[in-house]
Amino acid sequence: MLITPRKDSLNRIVILNPKGGCGKSTLATNLAASYAQRGAVPAVMDYDPQGSTMAWLERRSADLPTIHGIAAYKKSMQATRSWQLRVPNETETLLVDSPASVDHDDLRELTRDSTSILVPVLPSSMDIHAASRCIADLLLVAKIDRRDRKLAVVANRTRKNTKSLAKLMRFLDSLGIPIIAVLRDTQNFVLSAEEGIGVCEMPPSRVRPDAEQIEKIVDWLDAWPQRRRDSTSVTSVNKIPANTRSLFRRAQLGSV
Length: 256
Ligand SMILES: Nc1ncnc2c1ncn2[C@@H]1O[C@H](COP(=O)(O)OP(=O)(O)OP(=O)(O)O)[C@@H](O)[C@H]1O
Ligand SMILES: [Mg+2]
What we know:
Blueprint: E1 11-15, H1 24-37, E2 43-46, H2 52-59, E3 68-70, H3 81-84, E4 93-97, H4 104-111, E5 116-121, H5 125-140, E6 151-155, H6 163-175, E7 179-182, H7 187-195, H8 204-222, H9 224-231, H10 244-253
Parallel strand pairs: 1-4, 1-5, 2-3, 2-4, 5-6, 6-7
Helix pairs in contact: 1-2, 1-8, 5-10
């Protein structure tokens, strides 16, 4: 899984959560549309054999700002893997959409060299259990250092003030992982997916709260150089607490 050009300056955003249907492709496509609207050509890399993000790109009109697509789930016999996964030189932002099931080796590979990792979470008890396992794997298997502050959660399809959202917030708070945006449950995301656009490309009066949340995520993502600089000055406060495993177990049992 080699990304050859401009490795140091590439904003490599990985979106993952092995729970199917939690909103990975929705986030990848909406963030790509938002970056494209600003002028630079972002790239999306789709590792999911379902190819939802590539299919979205195919539905996208040629009149809209360009997004480069890389079908990483396809294995080509004619080209080397690094050639197949090459990112155009002008690309500054790469959004990686991941499949629903990711083994430990793939998790390490996917997150290597990432500048940010986003975990979309639906606020049902089952989804929160799955998300807690995913975050445990990111910290304990992929060895994501929380001092780098590259890991964040996006609460998706959320109705405000639910018990499960409060539980998710308490759990993440105990680990110092931020929820950087809360996306409401709305047909705007379904329609934009069908049309190969992002909510930021729909009539503003209709999508304002949704587009604002996507912008909030972009702002957080764009702060990665600052977060990286800050991480070197942060000391023991952000170390993984000794009781991390028991926190995850309690979250899985629904008692956090
Ligand atoms: N905030 C939302 N409001 C309404 N519908 C949503 C929202 N987010 C996602 N959806 C819809 O939920 C379905 C699943 O979303 P999506 O495909 O993004 O999930 P995924 O995590 O990529 O799934 P998979 O694991 O199968 O790849 C899609 O039909 C999508 O349009
Ligand atoms: Mg998907």
